[in-house]
Amino acid sequence: MQNAGIWGIGSFTEGREVTNFDLEKTLDTSDEWIRTRTGIERRVFAEDDVDTSDMSYYAAVDALKEAELDASELDLILVATVTPDYPFPSVSSLLQERLGAPKAAAMDISAACAGFIYGLATAEQFIKTGMYKHVLVIGAEKLSKVTDMDDRNTAVLFGDGAGAAVVGPVDEGKGFLSFELGSDGEGAMHIRQDPQLIMNGREVFKFAVRQMGESSINVVEKAGLTKDDVDFLVPHQANIRIMEAARERLELPKDKMAATVHKYGNTSSSSIPIAMVEELKNGKIKEGDLIVMVGFGSGLVWGATAMRWGR
Ligand code: COA
């Protein structure tokens, strides 16, 4: 079977900066509470005329450039989002036209904050079997559309953004080594949109701490490796305390984990690729590194992968 991996990656994090101090003016909250309980210092809300497909487009252009691939070569576009521009058509179809990818099939994936990992796993199946060669996987959210800015339990947590990866065939031993995807519908109501975002934070916290650690270990073992082999962890950026619990489970030092939650808050499906882009720029992820990406979210769902960076 053909190995699959990431050829290029890009992100979009522009918009209106909202600091904790800005939120203090309208909510019964404080910078101190938000920072100590979540690690978040600021978040970015997309401008009014920028929707999920626009953010996806900008992230995709950067990923295609890095991959040195023309959009016309794409076979499939997968957009993981819970905040599409419209219920239908899909964000992927809007992008297919805008990017100029006439031969690409297009579909959106709904797996909340684990959506990017679900997208990567889906892309891998098509490449492994030889059905497709080039798959564009995007995580993009405009959560500011569905966040109740009067609810301090949720308003302080979320932000907008997009991340994109071009997935294609890679050499033996590189790319995705293992995946784990899962769901526990019993907790489905703990984070829901009805009509705005509602969350039982304590329950989600307990689930996340347990699942992030377990899935991280599981994908490493599935790849036939041990936690000593892991070079870098890229967790879903929801809350620094949840992220730290996963890092400690892998017994990694502090500087071996991607952390951008202080800058962007929880950007759901886009948080993992956004964090990847930043840590690649910082030189923290290098060719040949064993990387674990792990996410969780509304569903409840989770997803993780162990991958060897490089093509
Ligand atoms: N500012 C000030 N106080 C706040 C607050 C805010 N923004 N939000 C909640 N509080 C209050 C609560 O009302 C509660 O008050 P009470 O004790 O009088 O009822 C108190 O802070 C403590 O709440 P608790 O739930 O124990 O805090 P916590 O340490 O668990 O932190 C979360 C709350 C939401 C940060 C945390 O539970 C969490 O991160 N959960 C996971 C959420 C998540 O990741 N969601 C996205 C999934 S993809």
UniProtKB/TrEMBL annotation:
GO BP annotations listed: fatty acid biosynthetic process
Keyword Lipoprotein found: no
Enzymatic reactions: 3-methylbutanoyl-CoA + malonyl-[ACP] + H(+) = 5-methyl-3-oxohexanoyl-[ACP] + CO2 + CoA; (2S)-2-methylbutanoyl-CoA + malonyl-[ACP] + H(+) = (4S)-4-methyl-3-oxohexanoyl-[ACP] + CO2 + CoA; malonyl-[ACP] + propanoyl-CoA + H(+) = 3-oxopentanoyl-[ACP] + CO2 + CoA; malonyl-[ACP] + acetyl-CoA + H(+) = 3-oxobutanoyl-[ACP] + CO2 + CoA
Keywords recorded for this protein, A-Z: Acyltransferase, Cytoplasm, Fatty acid biosynthesis, Fatty acid metabolism, Lipid biosynthesis, Lipid metabolism, Multifunctional enzyme, Transferase
Active site (UniProt): 113, 236, 266
Location, primary (coarse class): cytoplasm
GO molecular function: 3-oxoacyl-[acyl-carrier-protein] synthase activity; beta-ketoacyl-acyl-carrier-protein synthase III activity
Recorded family membership: Belongs to the thiolase-like superfamily. FabH family.
Name of the protein in its database record: Beta-ketoacyl-[acyl-carrier-protein] synthase III
Source organism phylogeny: Bacteria, Bacillati, Bacillota, Bacilli, Bacillales
Gene: fabH
